[in-house]
Amino acid sequence: MGLISNGTTIFDNGAMASGFSSSLNFISKATASASASISFTSGIDSTYKEYVFYFVNLHPSTDGVKLLFNFSTDGGSNYNVTKTATNFYAGHTEADATGFGYDSGLAQSTSYAWGTVGTMGSANDESCAGLLHLFNPSSTTFVKHFVSKVTIYGSNPQSQITYGAGYGNTTSAIDAIDFKMDSGNIDAGEILLFGVS
């Protein structure tokens, strides 16, 4: 089916759809088990222009912590890429209170960037899930943009969604990434890495 005007086909949506198609290509998976951090030191290269990290039930060992991440340009020897980032959140507690806001204290980071604004709980049924998109990490011309969306079972307790975006302020190729909690271990959960083609 296409768009037809006055009996003339202007475009064919089948032909257009082929130009917009994309697919996720599984690269690797890391499983936490009382892990201080989860690092991906391979698989991030010039093969794809976009990489997606999926967080599946990341459970902290410590109550009231936030998920963090940082990039490396030297294969994971150092995670020290300066980032400029911003985020906002919406939340709803089990006591029926709501919140929406922006945390200026988490907006810019010279070290690890904040993947969540609210703090996760460490009870057996509490965790976070979400994703992080990293764009064109092998570029040696542009900074490295990222976008994240993470939902948590918060420690107060609440449901909260955090939307984040920013860039790693380097023109060097990013070839590794590290995830950790701001205190304590990642007790359980998985992170899956995909390339987008």
Summarize the structure.
The chain is mainly β and 197 residues long. It has a single domain (25-196), classed as Jelly Rolls (Sandwich), CATH 2.60.120.
Notes on the structure:
The protein is mostly beta strands and 197 residues long. The protein has a single domain, classed as Jelly Rolls (Sandwich), CATH 2.60.120. It has 1 helix and 15 strands, in the order ββαβββββββββββββ. It has one helix spanning 13-20; strands at 2-5, 8-12, 24-35, 38-40, 50-60, 67-72, 83-93, 98-101, 108-109, 113-114, 128-135, 144-154, 158-168, 176-181, 186-196. Strands 3, 5, 7, 8, 9, 11, 12, 13 and 15 form a 9-stranded antiparallel beta sheet that branches. It has a 4-stranded antiparallel beta sheet with strand order 4-14-6-10, with no helix packed on it. A hairpin with a 4-residue loop joins strand 7 and strand 8 (98-101).
Write the layout of secondary structure elements.
Blueprint: E1 2-5, E2 8-12, H1 13-20, E3 24-35, E4 38-40, E5 50-60, E6 67-72, E7 83-93, E8 98-101, E9 108-109, E10 113-114, E11 128-135, E12 144-154, E13 158-168, E14 176-181, E15 186-196
Antiparallel strand pairs: 1-2, 3-15, 4-14, 5-11, 5-15, 6-10, 6-14, 7-8, 7-9, 7-13, 11-12, 12-13
